[in-house]
Amino acid sequence: MSDIEIAQANEKTEMKPIQAIGAMVGLTEDDLELYGKAKAKISLPTLRRLQHQPLGKLVLVTSINPTPAGEGKSTVTIGLGDALRLRGQNAVIALREPSLGPVMGMKGGATGGGYSQVVPMEDINLHFTGDMHALTTAVDTLAALIDNHLQQGNALNLDPRRIIWRRALDINDRSLRHVTIGLGGATSGVPRETEFDITVASELMAVLCLASDLGDLKARIARIVIGYTYDRKPVTVADLEVTGAIAMLLRDAIKPNLVQTLAHTPTLIHGGPFANIAHGCNSVLATRTALALGDIALTEAGFGADLGAEKFLDIKTPVLGKTPDAVVIVATVRALKYNGGQALKDLTTEDLAALNTGFANLARHIQNMAQYGVPVLVAINQFATDTEAELATLVALCAQVGATAIPANVWGEGGHGALALADAVVAAVAQPSHFTPLYDPASDVKAKIETIVTKIYGGARVEYDHKAELALKTIAQNGWSQLPVCMAKTQYSLSDDPKRLGAPSGFTIHVRDITPKLGASFLVIMTGSVLTMPGLPKRPAAMNMDVSDDGVISGLF
Fold it and tell me: What's the confidence (pLDDT) of residue 67?
């Protein structure tokens, strides 16, 4: 059966009313705002009340660099949550929301797979509770207000050439990467060049995910820099006097969404920034709520540990006020063989030599996570084609670098396939954790970038384009240098070249631009050729999708 067929069969026969899922973690009907039978938002008064609850243990799930072979990070997170509850632990999961871009493109959704899924799968992967639409509307409303300000006399003296706020769309659309607007004469606006981001790369997505409450959301929106005046002074949303309007559009989107796994584990899904161009973590509010409701909260960070996990640990945890008690790195035999040079079409064939070579990628991520002083485990996401020799080899290789690796068959068996992993996690979170940030945010911007490049990526040096050097001067002049850095880099390699697999070293990272995101409170470092608006593949996943006359969806993974 496909993922969607498994999910649909469960939704018809076994899915519980969402009130029952809330009751499992002490939430009453008054705490929930229902979106049908299977989805709910947690109310603002309840979120305020939960801020005073003691926090449980936090487990961060990350992975090796993604490959076409797939790693199954969400699938393992969900299966591990189910397994912990089978072991009697009060586990709560906190995940990111899917973006329609990858759903309609080729990467897929974010609800897991097989018997390790979150449901209702179709709703979550499509429109869910409308959060992505609210964000898109807020982004584009701000853009419209900026252009209207230009049209109506430009009292703020905004330079149209230096407006950095972009419109957004939650779909991959390469034709919108560079556009000209305002054509058609004096009544159609001020002509200027601009760009579109995918919604999940917008600063408002980061703002929503890092805000601690509605008041903090407004404060963050107010300080967003939308552009610069003709004399190079920054202009903010507060200067435009529309902070309240933009926050109003996000009044409901700020509330975390409650759903369930196939095994009825309570799951919060909220926020979805990409980790290759944003900070890649679900919302602070959802993670804190999971920590308040459960004894163990499981969350994930997007893409590999070089991106999502680094940003979780250096950008999100200072805001969250809680550091992980354990880190789980997800790897597969298939993906490591791919990193070791085995052809994609041959990955079902045993190849211990390729596995040994490709292990260097996992070893680098293990080393990187260990730098933070937190217990590290490896979850081997098991496939039916993995041989006993390959699994034994991978376990032994991990042991050689001081890491415990546990195979888990969560796709085929759900939580029952991850009981040994759950036991290892319970033991790990009981160990002392001595969390150490990678860098001091108060240090020089270049020093922060170079620390990440050398200590996480394995690179040797950083080169800055002229545009990036100019941006650094602007950042210093405005007193923004103390902000943490958010690296925008390809997810496929530790370097900025997506074709350099494994664990390259001694390379140069090329920084082409740096953008201040004062609402998110970080600086985005654009490297290599990474894009903020992806494109669709030659054969998008959308071509396999359909809906019957009865409203039944097919082809959605």
Answer: 86
Best CA proximity match to 433, nearest among 60, 170, 134, 145? 60
202 and 292, same structural domain? no
Query: Tens digit of pLDDT for each residue in 476-502?
Result: 999 999 999 999 999 999 999 999 999
User: Is residue 244 classed exposed, middle or buried when 0-12, 13-18 and 19+ CB atoms within 10 A define those classes?
Assistant: exposed
pLDDT, tens digit (0-9, with 9 covering 90-100), for 342-358? 999 999 999 999 999 99
The answer to whether 507 is a known catalytic residue is: no
Is 165 labeled as catalytic in the residue annotation?
Answer: no
Residue 541 domain flag:
no
7 vs 175: CA distance, rounded Å: 35
Rounded to a whole number of angstroms, the CA Rg of the chain reads 23
Q: Does residue 203 sit in the same domain as residue 328?
A: no
Question: Nearest to residue 114, comparing CAs of 259, 11, 21, 5?
Answer: 5
Three-class DSSP labels, 223-253? CCEEEEECCCCEEEHHHHCCHHHHHHHCCCC
User: 39, 96, 218, 512: which one is catalytic?
Assistant: 96
154 and 89 in one domain? no
Among 128, 165, 274, 303, the active-site one is 303
The answer to whether position 285 is within a domain reads yes
From 312, 359, 411, 522, active-site residue:
411
Segments in 414-527 forming alpha helices (H) = 419-429, 445-452, 466-477
Q: Which of 257, 219, 224 is closest to 131 using CA atoms? A: 257
Could you give the number of structural domains in the chain?
3
Active-site hit among 128, 165, 274, 383: 383
- Among the listed residues 23, 87, 107, 387, the single catalytic one is 107
- Identify whether residues 209 and 278 lie together within a single domain: no
Domain interval for residue 451? 445-527
Quote the pLDDT of residue 6.
Answer: 85
Active site residue 448: no
Pair (303, 405) in one structural domain: yes
The reply to whether 75 belongs to the active site is: yes
Same domain, 190 and 145: yes
Query: Is there a catalytic annotation at residue 383?
Result: yes
Q: For residue 519, give the CATH number of its domain.
A: 3.10.410.10
Same domain, 243 and 266: no
Q: Which of 75, 136, 194, 243 is catalytic?
A: 75
Catalytic residue chosen out of the listed positions 39, 57, 73, 512: 73
* pLDDT computed for residue 108 by the predictor: 67
pLDDT digits (tens, 9 = 90+) for 34-90: 999 999 999 999 999 999 999 999 999 999 998 886 789 999 999 999 999 999 999
Query: Considering the domain boundaries, does residue 548 fall inside one?
Result: no
Q: Is residue 437 part of a domain?
A: no
- How confident is the prediction for the chain on average, in pLDDT? 95
Is 96 designated active site?
Answer: yes
- In this structure, are 163 and 296 located in the same domain? no
- The SS3 assignment for 331 reads strand
The CATH number given to whatever domain includes residue 411 is 3.40.50.300
